[in-house]
Amino acid sequence: MSVNAVSLEEVTKSFGAVRAVDGLSLDIPQGQTLALLGPNGAGKSTTIGMLLGLTVPDAGRVRVFGGAPSVAVRAGRMGAMPQEGGLISRVTVRELVAFVAGAYAAPLPVADVLATARLTDLAGRRVDKLSGGQAQRVRFALALAGDPDLIVLDEPTAALDVEARREFWDGMRRYAARGKTILFSTHYLEEADEHADRIVVIDRGRVVADGTSREIKRVAALTTVSLSVDGETSWLGRLPGVTMVEIRGRRAHLRTTDSDATVMALAEARAVRDLEVSPADLEDAFVALTGRGAASPSPTTAARGAEEESAA
Ligand SMILES: Nc1ncnc2c1ncn2[C@@H]1O[C@H](COP(=O)(O)OP(=O)(O)OP(=O)(O)O)[C@@H](O)[C@H]1O
């Protein structure tokens, strides 16, 4: 098996009394596109800083392609796009890309960089005359110039409008299609859902969920099946997939990790009356996982509730 592109082992970093990253472990195999999703202050930028070798962890180990981050950077194997950062002005896009590519031993041909970042038509434009979205694609191009195997992007599309984001991700997909590894942080749930193979949700410096968007929704157990009931309801908690039962008036609301199995079992029990299935979206899952902004119980609470119920 090939070495992981990224391996973080129990990494911790504090700033004074603030523990920004708290025992975080994460392995990213080569070729994966991973979204690091988390609310403000979750520890995304600090994690990325350690990954890039810009910040030294207090404890734990950071490996990029099996070695120190600085080795991967020097070898041109890791390219980064920081959250912000000025671009040299008064030069054209092509000149700037060629200048940065020239710093690497085995750069990508400039024409390829421009094409991947969708900048071919803007190659002769001066950098200081670009729109925000175009400038962001130039930053992406600079991260690509050394033909890295891993690219790390800290909130690459923050402040871009919908069209600029679409164009940005278009370029990113071309890069990923070449078998490269991508790690990006984002607040945009739909962006993680749409562009990542894997989503790692972090909060307070810890991983709170890790999986495909489908798996994360399942972990959050947020699909709700509701139906009209009368009489005895305790059996509803024993249906497959059900993690929580709430009775409100004459309706039962079942949280389930497997709505298909729950509905089938209800049908077998001839209990389907005014049935409604409300699927979770990633936003609900995120809120439930991080406990921010909603009164939903955390998934661990939900899972524990179900275990206790079935043990009883
Ligand atoms: N250089 C620093 N000095 C002091 N505190 C810091 C420093 N860098 C980060 N922090 C604190 O560490 C915590 C994690 O911050 P970090 O920037 O890693 O989060 P984030 O998930 O990237 O947030 P955002 O999405 O807002 O960029 C926050 O409480 C932040 O205030």
Structure description:
Helix 8 crosses helix 10. It contains eleven helices and 13 strands. The radius of gyration is 23 Å and the shape is elongated. It has a six-stranded mixed sheet, with helices on both faces. Strands 11-12-10-13 form a four-stranded antiparallel sheet. By secondary structure, it is of the alpha/beta class. Adenosine-5'-triphosphate (ATP) binds next to strand 2 and helix 1. GO terms for molecular function: ATP binding. Keywords: Antibiotic resistance, ATP-binding, Nucleotide-binding, Transport.
Q: Mind sketching the topology for me?
A:
Blueprint: E1 6-15, E2 18-28, E3 33-37, H1 44-51, E4 59-64, H2 69-74, E5 78-81, H3 93-101, H4 110-116, H5 132-144, E6 150-154, H6 162-176, E7 181-186, H7 189-195, E8 198-203, E9 206-211, H8 213-220, E10 223-228, E11 242-248, E12 251-256, H9 259-268, E13 276-278, H10 282-290, H11 299-311
Parallel strand pairs: 3-7, 3-8, 5-6, 6-7
Antiparallel strand pairs: 1-2, 1-4, 8-9, 10-12, 10-13, 11-12
Helix pairs in contact: 5-6, 8-10
The structure holds adenosine-5'-triphosphate.
GO molecular function: ATP binding
Domain ABC transporter: 6-229
Keywords: Antibiotic resistance, ATP-binding, Nucleotide-binding, Transport
